[in-house]
Amino acid sequence: MLTRNRLLAGTAALVAASLATLGLAGPAAAQAPIKIGEMNSYKVFPAFLEPYKKGIELAVEEVNAAGGVLGRKIEVVSRDDNGNPGDAVRVAEELLSREGAAFLIGTFPSNVGLAVADFAKQRKVLFIAAEPLTDKIVWDSGNAYTYRLRTSTYMQTAMLIPDAAKLKKKRWAIVYPNYEYGQSATAAFKKLLKEKQPDVEFVIEQAPPLGKIDAGAVAQALADAKPDAIFSSLFGPDLAKFVREGQQRGLFKGVEVFNLLAGEPEYLDPLKEEAPEGWYVTGYPWSEIKTPEHTKFLNAYQAKFKDYPRLGSVVGYATVMSAAEAIKKAGSLDQEKLLAAMSGLTLMTPFGMIQYRPIDHQSTMGAYVGRIGVKDGKGVMKDWRFVDGKDALPSDAEVQKMRPKN
Amino acid sequence: MTLSSILIQLLNGLAAASSLFLVSAGLSLIFGVTRIVNFAHGSLYMLGLYGAYSLIELFGRTPLGFWSAVVLAALAVGLVGVLIELAVLRRIYRAPELFQLLATFAIVLIIKDIALFTWGAEDLVGPRAPGLSMAVEILGKRVPAYDLLLIVIGPLVLAAIWLLLTRTRWGALVRAATQDREMVGALGVDQAKLFTSVFFVGAVLAGLGGALQIPREPANLELDLAVIADAFVVTVVGGLGSIGGAFLAAVIIGVAKAFCIGIGSVTWFGVEISFSKLTLVVEFLIMALVLVVRPYGLLGKPQAAQRVAAEPAPPFTVPSWTFALVWLALLIVVPWVTDRYAAILLTDIVCFALFSVSLHFIMGPAGMVSFGHAAYFGIGAYAAGLLLKRVGLPMEAALLIAPLVAGAFAIVYGWFCVRLSGVYLAMLTLAFAQISWSIVFQWDSVTGGSNGVFGVWPSPWLADKTVYYYLALTLCGAGIAFLWRVMFSPFGYALRAGRDSPLRAEAIGIDLRRFQWAAFVLVGALAGLAGAVYAFSKGSISPSTISIAQSTDGLVMVLLGGVETLTGPVVGAAIFTWLRDVVARNTEFWRAVIGLVILLIVLLFPQGLVGGLKALAMRWRERHA
To answer: pLDDT of B123-179, one tens digit each?
Structure first.
C-alpha cells in the first residue's frame, strides 16, 4: 500500500512541478515585443482562416519592418479556440495572464465572438473582433471594450437591397443556414426590402442546419413555391450543394438570386465553372481592384505567399493594422488610452480608409457588391462596385435605440 | 404540397437514404461481429469522398474514369479499415467494453488532420457523373438522373449483402459471430481473420457511400462527424446487426427529412410551425420514438448474452486518506506557487472531473453507458445562466438550484432510458441530449439560440479567479467525494449487483429499474452542478455545452483514465484537458497529436491510464516483495 501511495504521490509532485515551471516562464523584458493576443477557430473554419492567418503574418511583418510601434516590435500570439466559447474564454485568459498580451483580437463564429466580447467587458480589456458578422456584437450586446472590423450581416444585406428593390420582384423565397448569421440576414433582408417595396411577398422560408443541407429537397421545395427571386445566405459546402441541385433541377431559370458572401473567393472558387452566373452577391474581386492601397497589399501578399489573397487575408491584415494603429495613437498600452484611441480611429486598409465609429464601435469597412460571372472556367465577380460601410448602416437614432448605454 | 411534389420529395428522400444506408450497413456489420462502436466510420466515409475526388482528377472525367475512381476509392478505404483493425483494434479486443471507442475517437482526430494536410482546407467540389449529369423530367419536375441511379444502388447493395450473408461460408460465419462470438471461436474459426475481413467489408461500404456522393456533396472536413451521428441513428433505429433494418431505417429517415423540407412552414391554430427547422433534429426524434416503442430497434433482436465478454470488472479500491489529502493539498497550493492561469485551467479541470466522474458512476458501477451525458451538464449550465439572467436570482442561488433542474430533466429522460440496455440505452440518452440541444438552439427568446447566454458572471466576492477556483474545487470535490461514497453504500452495491447479474439481483429483491432510475437522477444532478460551476467560470453559455462533442469528451475522459478504477475518470479529465491546452498551443496539427497520444495510451494501457499504472505498480511490487 505504502509503495503505491508513494508512487502516486511522486507522480503528483512531478505534475505539480511541471505546472509550476510552465507557470513561471519568463516575465517580459522591457524591450520585448508588444504581444497582441489572437484567437480563432482555425480547425473548424480552415478555408477562411488559413488565408486569414497569412494576412496576419503579412501585417506583422510590415509593421515591424516600419520600425514597430512605440519603439517596440509587435508579436501576434495565436490560439485555437476550437469554435467553442468556453475554450475561447479560457485561451483569452491565458493570452492575457500568461502571455502578457496587451489586448485581444480575432474570433470567427458569432457565439464565440459574443462570448469573448462579454469576457473583455468583464476583464476590462480591449477586444477587436475580426470576423464575427453578428449585428449583436456592436448593437444589442455591444459594450465599451469591444470593437468590430468586419462588414456586418446587416451591412452586407443592406448593400444588396438597392438591386433587389430595383427588380420589383414580388414573390421571394428565402433559404438560410439555421443559426444566428442566417437568421439575422433573413430578418434584415425582409425588413429592409419591405420598407422599399411594401407589396413584396415572402412565399417560402427554408432553414437547413448549417453544413447539413438536403440540397435536392430544399431546391425542390423552393421551386414548388414558384418564386420570382431568391434570397440566400448559404456559404461553404451548403452553397455548393444548393447551386448544383438548383441548376440540375432548373430552379434558377428565370429567377433572380441574391446570395450574401457568395462572391468571396473562399466560397466562389470551389464552384469553378459551375459558379452560378448572374447571381447578385457580396464578395471580393481581388484580381480586379486597382486602388493603390489594394495593389500594394496584393503585391506584397503574392510576393510573400505565392498565392492570391482571399477575403480572410484582408480581414486578418486589417485587424492587425487596426491594432497597431490603436497602440500608436494611444501612445501606451494602458487600457483606457487604448479604448480612447479606438474610438473614431481611422486607418488605411486594402479596402480604403475605414473608421471605427464612436457611436457603436463598428468599423466602416465596406464590401464589394456585384454579379457572378464565369471566366476561363472560374467564377468571378462582374459589374461590381465598392460600397462604403458607412453608407450601409442604419441611422444614428436607430443605432442608439438598439445599443445599451454604458 | 401537390401530389407531384410529394412524389418528387419521396424520390429525394430515397436518394438520400441510399448513401445513408451504405454507411450504416457497414457500421452495423462491424458492430454485429466485433461489438466495436466504430466512431471512425464517418472518417472512412469522408476518405471515400476525398479519395474519389483525387482519383477522378487523375483518371479524367469520363464514365470509365468516374466509375473506376469510385470503386478504387471504396477499395482503398477498405484497406485503411484493415490497417486500423490490424494496427490498433486487434490489440485491444480484450479491453473493457467500449474501450475501443476511445481508439476510434483518436483515429477520427488523426484522419481529419491527415485529410487537411493532404487535401487542404478548401472545399473540393467534384464533377457531376459523366453521362448522368442531366435531369429527368417526372410529372413536369426535373430530377437529377444520378439521384435515380442512387435509388437503385441502395437496394442492389442490400441484395448483394444479403446474398453474401446467406449464401456464402463467410456470411454464415459472420452471422454466427454476430449471434455468438465465443462459440464461433470455440469451433475453431480464426476470429482474427474474420474480424479483419468484416472490417474490410464495412470500410468498403463506408468508402463507397462517400465516393458515390461525389456529384452531390463537396469533399470537406466536416463530413466525418456530420455522417457518423446519422449512421449511428440509422443503425440503431433499424436494429443493431440487422442489414434489412438499416435499410428500412435509412428510408424512413431520408424520406422524413425530405418531407419536413417539402412541407415547409404551416400554420396550425394561429401558431406557425416550421418543419424545415425540424430537420435539425428529426432523426433523433424518430430514434427516441422507435426506441421507446421498440427497445431493440425496428428489426433488431435482443442482444445475445455474451458469456464472458471480458474479465468481470474488478472491485473498486478506495483511495486511501493519505493519498486523497496529498492531492487535495497540492490542488490547494498550486494557485499560490504558479500564475493566475493555472487557477483557470484547474477550474476547467475540476468541472470536467466531476462531469466525468458522474458519467463514470453510471457507466461503471451502474453499467449503463450514456452517449448523451452532456445533456445534464448543459442543462445545469443553462439553468444557472437563465436563473441569473432571466429570473433574476442571486448567483449563489442559481448555482445551487441549477443541479436540481438538471436532476429534474434526468427524472424524465431516465425513466425512458432505464427500460433499455446496452447500446440502445446509450443511443436513447444521445437522442434526449440532441433533442435538448435543438430546443436550446432554436428557442431564441429564452436561451439566446445559437449565440447562447452572456453576462453569466459570479458575484463580486467570487470574481477573483483564484477564489472562484476554490469554490469550484470545493463544490466539485464534494460532488466527487459524494459519488464515491455512494458507490460503497448499499445503493451502490445494489447497482453493481444489477450490472453483474440482473437476474440474481432481482432474485434477491432488488428493484433494479428503480435503482437505475435513481442513479440517473443522481448523476444528472451532479453533472448539472459541474455545468453550473463551469458556466459561471466562463461568463457565457452556448449550445456547445449540450453538444455531441461535449458528450464525447466525457466518454474520452472516463475511458482514458480507466473505467475500472475510481480515480481514473478524474485523471482522464485532467490529462485530456491539460493535453488540449498544451498541444493546441504548440502545434498546428494539434488534433493529430492528441489523437496519437490517445492511441499510444490505448495501446500501452488497455485498462486506461490509472488501470495501467496500477497494474505496473502491482508488477513492480511483486518483483520487489
So the answer is: 999 999 988 888 888 888 889 999 999 999 999 999 999 999 999 999 999 988 888
Best mutation target among B50, B111, B377, B538 (most A Cβ atoms within 10 Å) is B538
Query: What dihedral angle (degrees, nearest 10) is formed by the CA atoms of B58, B63, B69, B75?
Result: -160
Nearest to A393 by CA among A196, A190, A108, A159: A159
Mean pLDDT, residues B397-424 = 93
Band of residue B303 on the pLDDT scale cut at 50, 70, 90: low
What is the C-alpha to C-alpha distance for residues A174 and A193, in angstroms, rounded to an integer?
A: 13
Question: How many CB pairs below 8 A link A and B?
Answer: 245
Handedness of CA B212, A266, A357, A342 (dihedral sign): positive
Average pLDDT, chain B: 90
Query: Lowest-pLDDT range, A78-92, A242-256, B296-310?
Result: B296-310
| Confidence label for B300 from pLDDT (cuts 50, 70 and 90) | confident
Q: Which of B117, B228, B233, B239 is nearest to B178 (CA)?
A: B239
Residue type, A179: Y
Domain count, chain A: 2
Q: At CB < 8 A and 24+ separation, what contacts does B167-173 make? A: B170/B197
User: B241: left (phi > 0), else alpha (psi -120 to 50), else beta?
Assistant: left
Cell 503579412 sits at which residue?
Answer: A58
- Which among B605, B519, B567 is positioned nearest to B91, based on CA atoms? B605
Domain boundaries, chain B: 12-231, 321-548
pLDDT > 50? residue B501: yes
pLDDT of residue B307: 52
Q: Does A228 touch chain B (CB under 8 A)?
A: no
Amino acid residing at B620: W
Cα–Cα distance measured from residue B198 to residue B200, given in angstroms and rounded to the nearest whole number: 5
| Mean pLDDT on B263-268 | 80
What does the alpha-carbon distance between residue A114 and residue A141 come to, in Å, rounded to a whole number? 8
Read off the C-alpha cell for B424: 440502445
Contact between A50 and B337 using a beta-carbon 8 Å cutoff = no
Distances in Å between the Cα of B78 and the Cα atoms of B168, B199, B228, B568 are 20, 8, 17, 35
Interface test with B, best of A3, A220, A242, A378 (most B CBs within 10 A): A220
User: Are A196 and A161 within 8 A, CB to CB?
Assistant: yes
Residues A49 and A109 in one domain: yes
**Cβ neighbourhood burial of B615 (10 Å; 0-12, 13-18, 19+):** middle
Chain mean position to CA A200: 30
Which of A366, A382, A400 terminates a domain? The answer is: A366
Confidence grade of residue A14 (pLDDT, cut at 50, 70, 90)? very low
Of B15, B133, B538, the CB nearest to A89: B538
B78/B73 Cα distance (integer angstroms): 9
* Residue B273, pLDDT score: 79
Is the model's pLDDT at A11 over the cut of 70? Answer: no
Torsion of CA A321, A327, A331, A334, to 10 degrees: 170
Please say whether the beta carbons of B286 and B252 come within 8 A.
yes
pTM (global) more than 0.95: no
pLDDT in the model for residue A18: 47
Are A372 and A356 part of one and the same domain?
A: no
Helix or strand run (H / E) with residue A64: helix A46-65
CATH number at residue A354: 3.40.50.2300
pLDDT class for B414, splitting at 50, 70, 90?
Answer: very high
A25 confidence band (pLDDT: 50, 70, 90): very low
- Does A340 touch chain B if contact means CB atoms closer than 8 Å? no
Same domain? A261 vs A173: yes
Give the domain extent around A276.
154-287+368-392
